[in-house]
């Protein structure tokens, strides 16, 4: 059994998937598998991975399931209990898996660990801005009450057994499935089950082809997308109370802070 699985779900991301996989395979923790879930790609996304020749890379087709179901498919197929999420167009930094696995080894009560920093890059991997996220659960709850996602999904690693025990990702959620997961992990008793480390772990790529940040915003504007957002907002209110400031219907759109001089 590898120490950790880096889980990537991909649907038509041929321009960036190779870079994402390369960054995952370049970890300083070598005892890993990189599991790519082919969520019904119709472009060359899977074809471009054919030249890696690394036995740690595994590709599993699942047909076209959609994000949450593809993630759950990947969880069932993952060989390790520690699962690190990486979007197919993002990059992970070399020490990420080692740092997170060491942290989970040392903190049995923590179920999920991410990064305090969300450095945004463009399509050419040039840094654009840096967002600072909270590190403790009280501040995370305050963000969630205002529908601001307090964690960067491509930076999180969690205990697979813990996430599966609570049902995995909600497959009825068309979008914001990551925000929903954090709400359920913290719970109404505000368990300190999730933590952001005070270091960079991954880079968030923003480009025009994205469904949230780019021109393909149909998933958010559709009735199913709007229904998903309302479902998660209701769960947040039930768990933590009503919003404490103006609501924001785009949970990943935190106002950007100036990029620190030492950011990557």
Describe what this molecule looks like in 3D:
By secondary structure, the protein is an alpha/beta fold. The chain has a single domain (4-240), classed as Spore Coat Polysaccharide Biosynthesis Protein SpsA, Chain A. Helices cover 30% and strands 19% of the residues. It has 8 helices and 11 strands. The strands form 2 sheets. It has a 7-stranded mixed beta sheet with strand order 3-2-1-4-9-6-10, with helices on both faces. A hairpin with a 5-residue loop joins strand 7 and strand 8 (127-132). Helix 6 (177-186) packs parallel to helix 8 (223-240). The radius of gyration is 17 Å and the shape is globular. Mean pLDDT is 90; it is low at 252-264.
Features:
264 residues, alpha/beta, Spore Coat Polysaccharide Biosynthesis Protein SpsA, Chain A, seven-stranded mixed sheet, four-stranded mixed sheet, 11 strands, 30% helix
